[in-house]
Amino acid sequence: MEYINEILSNLKKNNKYRGEFKKLQSPQKEKVVIDGREIILLGSNNYLGLCDHKEVKKASMEAIEKYGVGAGGSRLTTGSYTLHSMLEEKIKDIKGTQKALVFNTGYMANLGIIQALCNKDWVIFCDKYNHASILDGCLLSGAKFLRYRHCDMDDLSYKLENFKGKCNLIVTDGVFSMDGDIAPLDKIVEISKKHNAVIMVDDAHGFGVLGKDGAGTASYFGVNSEIHIHMGTLSKAVGSIGGYAASEEYFIEYFKNFSRSFIFSTALPPSSVAASIKALDIIKNEPLRRQRLLENSHRFKMELKNLGFKIPDTVTPIIPVIVGDEEKTLEFSRQLLYDRIYIPAIRPPTVPKGSSRLRISITAAHAWEDLEYVIERLKTTGRKLGLI
Ligand code: PMP
User: What class does this enzyme belong to in the EC scheme (predicted)?
Assistant: First the structure.
């Protein structure tokens, strides 16, 4: 297996080795301790600050007291608790669907949904910037899949007109995780109707953030009921862990029976499920959190734009600061860490070549004075690196 060592040393030589994690020594929140230093964290998907919420933690601990720490089996055997069903009820109510099904992660939800639904009779039309778990689901399904240019509706229509199969699935992220832009779901719905295609939306980053009561990107566009399969995660705005599918009953029953990542894996532990249930209540009952998140993000973006940074127009808390050059991006991130700010550098293959970036994500929990400090350091370092 000499070639494995060779590949690893090449990665190291080219500064592409990923394995030296920054280890947090404190809870996941707006400020964290890394290597004994307090750092402002601007890369987390903990958008609403719920990972370390007192009530969420209490609900989780009570579930441990009552049910223990492990589920002990798959949902289909011995691992299904009343809590899992309660969570599914809540998700289906938020999404306005007939039913929901909880998976262990968003990754497993994408894998399980697409693998169960599609086979060689299907053609899958996939946005070029879709999350890796969607691609992996497509590969696992054995379906033919085509990637259309990012959010390019002409390309999607062209591909559907020319390469349609017996059954067709259009799958897109609601919010794109590395760019923070949103898919034009209103237009995708129109196109899908014309071609009688099933639509699936991965709303990992929109759930809890956009739309009525945080219902997500489809709700933001007013097309919730037109999306056939809603997929999402409980690991971002919800602050816990888990994935879901929300849809009509027959789809959900089908996934229960055929999604291998659902069938062959131990269920989520009761503590995580209880945390998600409490967090969803908080999201519903405290709309100010979401409002603060969107206000913080908007204000921060405007400040960076005024400084001359290249920032796309988006309505989400994900703010990519495009640097381009990989080395420069790493250097930017390193210098900010020295100033006690952690913003991850994102490089190919996660993003296209030449578009390396700092991926900033704002949360509702960030104090504006801390964000002001970050803006000031971004300005100084950005100038030093010749970016503005
Ligand atoms: N879809 C998208 C768009 C994501 O960004 C992610 C997580 N990065 C996932 C799916 C996977 O979700 P999870 O982390 O819950 O596995």
Answer: transferase
